[in-house]
């Protein structure tokens, strides 16, 4: 179970091979109030594209730009290894390129920023008492607070601003074939 606790993003395929100890730990979770906050998957994908591809910031982001150039645009390995070539075209990666890369990749190997929520939260293994949505975080937070933390006087820090439909998301999806 220590491995499962240290790596909470185990895939369902991996979790199905439960030892008796892991099963006991999961059973104890079933008796607790369990909840998750999830985000609209369409918004989440677009946000990941904007943050990790358009506004690339470092090595990990370049990894995915290189992967897109290799798997989607047909670059050779030698071309992809050349930092100057990659930097020169990094700003030209489209949302369709990003989605095509995802379509060519097994979802279990996705980065956690765009991995489907069910692979991250394991709803087949954990019976959630409540699943709230970040797009309505104030109401979701209130439900969790009332059910599990009613004795605490803690207010939500602020409005979640990350899931707006502005910034080109509708146009981006309309451009998809």
Outline the structure in words.
The structure is a single chain. The protein is mainly α and 177 residues long. The chain is 52% helix and 5% strand. It contains 11 helices and 2 strands, in the order H-H-H-E-H-H-H-H-H-H-E-H-H. A two-stranded parallel sheet has the order 1-2. The protein starts with a helix and ends with a helix. Mean pLDDT is 80; it is low at 1-15.
Draw up the topology in text.
Elements: H1 2-6, H2 12-15, H3 20-31, E1 35-38, H4 41-54, H5 59-71, H6 77-81, H7 83-89, H8 95-103, H9 117-121, E2 130-133, H10 137-148, H11 169-174
Parallel strand pairs: 1-2
The strand order across the widest sheet is 1-2
What does the largest sheet look like? Answer: 2 strands, parallel
Helical content, roughly? 40-55%
Strand content: under 5%
Distance between the termini: 44 Å
Q: What Rg is obtained from the alpha carbons, in whole angstroms? A: 20 Å
Please tally the β strands and state the result.
2
Secondary structural class: mainly alpha
Q: What is the 3D shape? A: elongated
**Number of helical regions:** 11
Low-confidence stretches: 1-15
Tell me, rounded to a whole number, the average pLDDT: 80
State the order of secondary-structure elements, H for helix, E for strand: HHHEHHHHHHEHH
């Amino acid at each position: 179970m220590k491995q499962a606790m240290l790596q909470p993003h185990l895939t369902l395929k991996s979790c199905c091979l439960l030892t008796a100890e892991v099963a006991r730990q999961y059973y104890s979770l079933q008796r607790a109030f369990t909840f998750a906050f999830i985000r609209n998957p369409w918004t989440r994908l677009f946000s990941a594209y904007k943050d990790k591809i358009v506004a690339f910031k470092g090595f990990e982001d370049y990894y995915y730009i290189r992967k897109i150039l290799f798997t989607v645009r047909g670059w050779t390995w030698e071309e992809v290894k050349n930092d100057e070539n990659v930097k020169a075209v990094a700003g030209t990666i489209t949302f369709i390129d990003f989605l095509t890369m995802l379509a060519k990749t097994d979802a279990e190997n996705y980065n956690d920023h765009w991995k489907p929520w069910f692979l991250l939260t394991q709803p087949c293994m954990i019976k959630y008492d409540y699943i709230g949505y970040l797009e309505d975080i104030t109401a979701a937070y209130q439900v969790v607070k009332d059910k599990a933390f009613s004795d605490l006087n803690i207010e939500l820090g602020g409005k979640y601003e990350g899931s707006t439909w502005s910034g080109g998301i509708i146009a981006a999806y309309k451009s998809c074939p």
